[in-house]
Amino acid sequence: MTVLRVTDLTVHHPGPLGQVTAVDGVSLEVPSGTTLGLVGESGSGKSSLARAIVGLVPVHTGRIMLDGREIRARTIRDRRRLGRLVQVVLQDPDTALDPRMTVRQTLGEAATVFHRLDRPARDKRVTELLELVGLDPRLAGRLPRQLSGGQRQRVALARALAVEPGLLIADEVTSALDVSVQAAVLNTIRELQRRLGLSMLFIGHNLPAVCHVSDAVAVMRHGRIVETAPTDALLRAPQHPYTRTLLAAVPSLRTPPPAPAPEEQPP
Ligand SMILES: Nc1ncnc2c1ncn2[C@@H]1O[C@H](COP(=O)(O)OP(=O)(O)OP(=O)(O)O)[C@@H](O)[C@H]1O
């Protein structure tokens, strides 16, 4: 079953010289239990597309279907339903984490938004979530500032997973991290996707990173998708000149990604 189907989506933003068309007639699908990568240079419209899916920017034309039902984000009830179905993790984990809340409070709150859990069940769930994203459960008492960047991003990921969404949108989730930590977080995301059978839209500008976690990849340029293909096929036989340019810029792509660094230590 297709979890997400976007058809002919157009998104405009207001600009000083009139409207900017950030997304221009985009169609894509994320089949259930798979990861679609969305890759493109800065300004190609990736985040506008993601924000339109979760109702943060208005859709000008087109349709967004989740599990066969059209997404609307007009009322609080719509937004609540949408939050249950789709969770987003962004580049900067600090936007998702309240600096005054411990990891336990953040994850406990997320785990009980849609599920009633008593205190012991809630604490057990927090431990499970931390283990799921490869963090030591003993970090539960820490505040975000007492964690490293990679650890904060893992907590943001755990917070999104706590809701048990049908679809996870990861938008540039590793871009702000050190290269060695990026590899560790990417591997965690890939393992989680496989283990939980998650459906995911993985957005990034780094082609090797996107290919590493994705079953298929859509290449975006100037608001349009220029090519979509299974990851192997895209790497083996890219069809569009822009995809070839992206590939040529990373000649080492066919070699395995760097080994993850040992888990980063908190400051
Ligand atoms: N809130 C906004 N108001 C006006 N223009 C915007 C807004 N958000 C994005 N844009 C414009 O829309 C276009 C697409 O931007 P978008 O952020 O979606 O691209 P992106 O591929 O995600 O880029 P990046 O990787 O740099 O975030 C750009 O021209 C950008 O300047």
UniProtKB/TrEMBL annotation:
UniProt keyword Zinc-finger present: no
Protein family (similarity comment): Belongs to the ABC transporter superfamily.
Gene Ontology biological-process annotations: peptide transport; transmembrane transport
Alphabetical list of CDD domains matching this protein: ABC_NikE_OppD_transporters
Coiled coil: none
Name this polypeptide is given: ABC transporter ATP-binding protein
Residue span(s) of domain ABC transporter: 4-247
